[in-house]
Amino acid sequence: MRSTMVRRSVIAASAVSLALMATACGSEKADTKADAKPSEAAATSAAPAGAKGKTDAEATALVVTQADLPDQIVSAEGAAKAATESAGATVDKAECKPLMQAQSSQKVGTATGIGRTTTKAKPKEAAADASPEDKLKASLEALGATQTLVSVGSYDAKGAEEAFAALKTAAAACSGGYTVTEGGEKVKYLDVKPGAAVTAGDEAAAFTLTMDLDEGEKSANHFVIVRKGNALATFYAFGVTAEQPKTVIDAQVKKLG
């Protein structure tokens, strides 16, 4: 059974559950008072004008696997389940739709194909002679470890650049927050702010999203987008103490070439 916080994280990140991960080893409507300009790397190259996008199967071959991330639990099965369960999700602000799509591993813009997976840092087991308190602490840390929904979308021509721009525009327009509804349950994001700077690919941007949890608690989630040629990789990281998934980002960008 999922806890309330896990359930809300699951909805926001397309229903990727902790149990599955363990066993599988956001229009130009920016608020001028709250402009969520991302921490980003400047574009260094454009995709070839005649670039052809890949199919879903071909894009999937570009996504990181367990072999690329030995210190993570990688589950393509979890990502497929997430995408299916989030297909009917809606958002209260039209300008936030690209964010919602990327967070839930859906195609953004004119993607010709998309590949997905989920990752979670492997838990550090307590020593055999550890105290009950230390063993409990290790278990809680394992449950709260950062989980990341990774997607790689492929595009014709300049489609990836356009999708990248659309996501930045959506983040600015939705800096004051938005609400996602899935399966009759609502998840409210209080704000979208710049995240820790990321330098990767041809252009990159990072954001933090504050999710409103039950009983007044909040959770800071991380959303990073990286364009490499005509491919767009998105990373949505969540958890009790989520961190920007640098290791996952680096491995995925390396695999894009």
How would you sum up this structure, described in words?
It is a single chain. By secondary structure, the protein is of the alpha+beta class. 29% of the residues lie in helices and 27% in strands. Strands 1, 2, 3, 4, 5, 6, 7, 8, 9 and 10 form a ten-stranded antiparallel beta sheet that branches. Helix 5 (97-103) crosses helix 7. Residues 1-35 have low confidence and may be disordered.
Task: Write a compact overview of the structure shown.
Helix content is 29%, strand content 27%. With 257 residues, the protein is α+β, with helices and mostly antiparallel strands.
Low-confidence stretches: 1-35
The helix-and-strand class reads alpha+beta
Q: Which quaternary structure do these chains form?
A: single chain
The coarse silhouette is globular
Can you tag this structure with a few keywords?
257 residues, alpha+beta, 10-stranded antiparallel beta sheet, 10 strands, globular
Q: Could you outline the blueprint of secondary structure elements for this entry?
A:
Blueprint lengths: L3 H9 L5 H6 L15 E3 L14 H5 L11 E4 H10 L4 E2 L5 H7 L9 E9 L10 H12 L3 E8 L4 H15 L4 E5 L2 E10 L8 E10 L5 E11 L2 E8 L7 H11 L1
Antiparallel strand pairs: 1-8, 2-4, 3-6, 4-5, 5-10, 6-7, 7-8, 8-9, 9-10
Helix pairs in contact: 5-7
